[in-house]
């Protein structure tokens, strides 16, 4: 397993995307776009929204917003080129058929939610709206990317995955936390290899994780840190003292200092 972590600041998230072959691009709003091949200047020093890396080659695309309507811009590897008006969330994605960027415009079939992912099995683009919420009987994962035997997206808090042999579990890639504002989860997969991009709105970190399916499904989820009902602090923070006869116990400050 290998990770790249990019820290960013500001109110606009550090949108990013990555491919299994190691290609990645992560926005540092208002500053630059960090890629595996060095940094790229933001278009007009602004902030990329909903960045998406091409299916092959050096290109990536994003929406840029200002006082004017949003426009899709594509980095060709050497320059920014305009790809016309864009609208709404997740407006850019790359076609499997011709490798060109496809731009959503808040009309059918995407509406204002845009595109979620390219379905490897069919070669078709999947709308964000159709994967926004799980259907009854499906794994409870929101804004997901799916294969027949694997699904990944948002849980109620962290990243959540479902797989055919192991069922569902939740975790984050940043610190193996099972909580946090983890959003804009992009996943690409080629056979047994996956590249997963996650934007952490709490820590202002964008992380790409490259791993095998076995590594992803083998991640163990730490138990939640229980809170003390007396003082409200995590029990793990409490002073631990040895017990006569062996073992130890946690001492709540409220038991030491008079309440
Ligand atoms: Zn306590």
Structure description:
The chain is mainly beta and 259 residues long. The chain folds into two domains: 2-218; 226-259, no CATH class. The chain is 4% helix and 43% strand. The protein has helices spanning 213-218, 253-256, and strands spanning 2-7, 16-18, 24-28, 32-35, 38-41, 48-53, 60-64, 71-75, 80-85, 92-94, 101-103, 115-118, 125-127, 142-147, 150-154, 159-163, 167-171, 182-190, 193-200, 205-212, 239-242, 248-251. It has a four-stranded antiparallel sheet with strand order 1-20-19-18. The chain has a four-stranded antiparallel sheet with strand order 2-3-4-5, with no helix packed on it. Strands 6-7-8-9 form a four-stranded antiparallel sheet, with no helix packed on it. The longest helix is centred in the C-terminal third of the chain and has 6 residues, at 213-218. 37% of the residues are buried. Residues 228, 230-231, 233, 238, 252, 254 line the site of zinc ion.
List keywords for this structure.
259 residues, mainly beta, 4-stranded antiparallel β-sheet, 2 helices, 43% strand, binds zinc ion
Structural class by helix and strand composition: mainly beta
- Total beta strand runs: 22
- SSE run: EEEEEEEEEEEEEEEEEEEEHEEH
Bound molecules: zinc ion
> What's the alpha carbon Rg, rounded to whole Å?
21 Å
Q: How far do the termini sit from each other?
A: 48 Å
Q: Record the strand order, biggest sheet.
A: 1-20-19-18
Shape: globular
Quaternary class: single chain
Question: How are the secondary structure elements laid out?
Answer:
Blueprint: E1 2-7, E2 16-18, E3 24-28, E4 32-35, E5 38-41, E6 48-53, E7 60-64, E8 71-75, E9 80-85, E10 92-94, E11 101-103, E12 115-118, E13 125-127, E14 142-147, E15 150-154, E16 159-163, E17 167-171, E18 182-190, E19 193-200, E20 205-212, H1 213-218, E21 239-242, E22 248-251, H2 253-256
The structure holds zinc ion (ZN).
């Amino acid at each position: 397993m290998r990770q790249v972590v990019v820290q960013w600041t500001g109110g606009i998230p550090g949108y990013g995307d990555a491919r299994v072959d190691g290609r990645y691009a992560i926005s540092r709003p208002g500053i630059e776009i960090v890629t595996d091949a060095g940094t790229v200047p933001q278009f007009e020093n602004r902030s990329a929204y909903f960045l998406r890396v091409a299916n092959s080659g050096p290109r990536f695309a994003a929406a840029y917003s200002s006082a004017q309507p949003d426009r899709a811009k594509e980095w060709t590897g050497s320059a920014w080129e305009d790809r016309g008006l864009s609208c709404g969330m997740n407006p850019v994605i790359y076609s499997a058929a011709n490798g060109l960027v496809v731009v959503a415009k808040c009309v059918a079939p995407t509406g204002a939610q845009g595109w979620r992912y390219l379905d490897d099995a069919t070669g078709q683009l999947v709308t964000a709206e159709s994967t926004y919420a799980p259907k009854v009987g499906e794994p409870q994962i929101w804004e997901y990317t799916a294969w027949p035997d694997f699904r990944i997206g948002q849980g109620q808090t962290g990243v959540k995955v479902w797989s055919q042999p192991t069922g569902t579990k939740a975790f984050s890639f940043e610190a193996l936390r099972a909580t946090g504002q983890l959003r804009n989860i992009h996943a690409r997969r080629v056979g047994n290899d996956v590249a997963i991009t996650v934007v952490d709105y709490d820590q202002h970190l964008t992380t790409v994780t490259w791993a095998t399916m076995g590594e992803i499904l083998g991640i163990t989820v730490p138990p939640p840190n229980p809170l003390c009902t007396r003082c409200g602090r995590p029990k793990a923070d409490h002073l631990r003292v040895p017990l006569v006869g062996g073992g130890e116990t946690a001492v709540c400050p409220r038991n030491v200092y008079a309440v």
